[in-house]
Amino acid sequence: MSATGPGEGDGDRDPVDRPERDAGPPTLAVVASLVAAGIATLAALIASPIGGALLALATVGLAGGSVRRSYRALSWGAGVGVVGLAVAGYRGAGVEPLLVGGVALAVAWDVADHGLSVGEQVGRDARTRRNVAVHAGTTLLAGGLSVGVVYGVYLAAAGSQPVAALALLLFGAVVLASTLR
Amino acid sequence: MSRAAAGDADGSASGGESGESEGGDATERRVRREIETGRWEGIRGIALAVVGVGVVARRPGLVLLGAVGVGYALYAGVGEAPAATLDVRRTVSDGTPEPGDEVTVTVRARNVGDAPLADLRLVDGVPPGLEVVDGPARVATALRPGAAVAFEYAVRASRGEHEWEALTAIARDPSGSRERTTAIDPVDPARVTCTPELGAGGDLPLRGLTTRYHGRMPTNVGGSGVEFHATREYRRGDPLKRVDWNRRARTGELATVELREERAATVVLLIDARESAYAAPEPAAETAVEASVGAAGQAFRALLDGGDRVGVAALGPVDCWLAPGAGTAHAARGRETLATDPALAPTPSGERFYRSLWLRRFRRRLPADAQVLFFTPLVDDAAASIARRIDAHGHLVTVLSPDVTAAGTPGERLVGFERRERVRDLRSAGIRAVEWNGESFPVAVARATSRWSR
Questions:
Q1: Which pLDDT tens digit goes with each residue over B296-321?
Q2: Backbone angles phi and psi of A4, in degrees to 5
Q3: Which domain holds residue A97?
Q4: What's the confidence (pLDDT) of residue A95?
Q5: Which residues contact B454 (CB under 8 A, 6 or more apart)?
Q6: Which CATH number goes with the domain that contains B351?
Q7: Preferred mutation among A20, A90, A155, A170 to probe B, highest tally of B CBs within 10 A
Q8: Are A130 and B142 inside 8 Å of each other by CB?
Q9: What is the pLDDT of residues A53-83, one digit of tens each?
Q10: What ipTM does this complex have?
Q11: A23 with B136: CB under 8 angstroms?
Q12: Is residue B149 situated within a structural domain?
């Protein structure tokens, strides 16, 4: 509590921070996150057992982060998941499972992280279903669109282009993204 | 409330002027905070690293995976935190409930802007003195333009006048990378006024400082009354009724019986409402201020019924003074003051308290013949010192102290011990003190009174 002017008195007792609820993430967010992480694990497992194992570890990390309400655990889980996908890719996973795994991992982390912030601000007992569903849907949609574009380019190039050319193309996309921002 | 901030905040937002078919204007709002949440931070680096691995290892799958990562980075980069252009209505089921009643509050928010709100969290500004008993006063949802969300919760009414604060709306863009917190003030903020009936109190012991009016307080002044006081020599003009005829028969002298005169007292109920008095043995329990106000209500009624003149004052940063008086109108005023005066609000006001200024003002207002019933939890030395100073100025003080100390941890026991020491000090300084804890106030008073000599 700091000394503030009379006009700012409300800021001291922000209604958002009042402890009157269970601040855990909504159940739907946790379940959706775990389902997505499970799909990512399956996709990686098809390609390589080590990648699958790493993604299973990532799933545990995401679940732990949701339960313990720790953003850091979620980030670590997502990081381990990316490494797992990279390992699976390096060990020769197919393009399709890798892309599915990538989007599923992104959705898993995103929904879990969103669930934590919703839980913090609104609480577990409040009505949050629509919010979480819309958020998960848009993230899935964004992933689906990027996969569509990327996979379309890949099919159009039909593997004839060298990988370096594809990377250069991507570099262009990144520069574009940076200038857009 | 800084309404000025609302002007520039609304400048960029397209409010309700776009003339939607459903009508309704955006409720006045102020932007509190706009932040980058940083939740997608690092996605670009990760994407590029994966692409790099893919290039070096000549794995097209990894390059494509990195490309999807770039897609998410783009997704996180575009979009702005939407303005929460909402039409908010808040209704309460009962504006004047009895204490303990459940009041249902319904909040309805409609998106009157042009843009959809993909991620909207609403937190209602429940007054700090009310406890939410059913359902959180919060909701998270997504609203298309024109769509509405309604949520309901129940609060338990408690003494006082409670006005709802602004509703907080937190809107994020779809990716959640930008967040805008807005305070929305409905045109008619809901208000609940809860005025408890004053409980019936028992007989309250007062000290011997009285007015010149007749009342119920026995004094040490001889005169007309019912109780024997003394006899004295007969003076011409004494009423024949009061002549001690037995003595006349026995000794032949004329003597007059004096009776104890009964007079009315002027009493000021002083309630400790400093921040330190908002203490309770456990977080959910009744605070000392609540206990004091409840007891003061009983005392108020009992004293008024007994014919005394009673006033109310608060020891705290917010000024509260009801001059001593009598009569039905005064009883209603007293009830109103005890129930809804901001100085006795169920939560502290947070303003600074200046003791010497307060004491000077209090002494100026206090009638010379007034005695003080001081309701305080005695959890700090200041309260005891104030009691002593008022007493020293000739206004006899009785301290009535709700015990709000706990006995769990060593710290709590220490506070309880210090409080008992203060009570002992007050008693040794000649100030009467009544403590009560758990038991009802009249019982404690009756028990304490039986120990006192007049």
A1: 888 888 888 888 889 999 998 888 89
A2: -125, 165
A3: 21-155
A4: 83
A5: B208, B218
A6: 3.40.50
A7: A170
A8: yes
A9: 999 999 999 999 998 888 899 999 999 999 9
A10: 0.83
A11: no
A12: yes
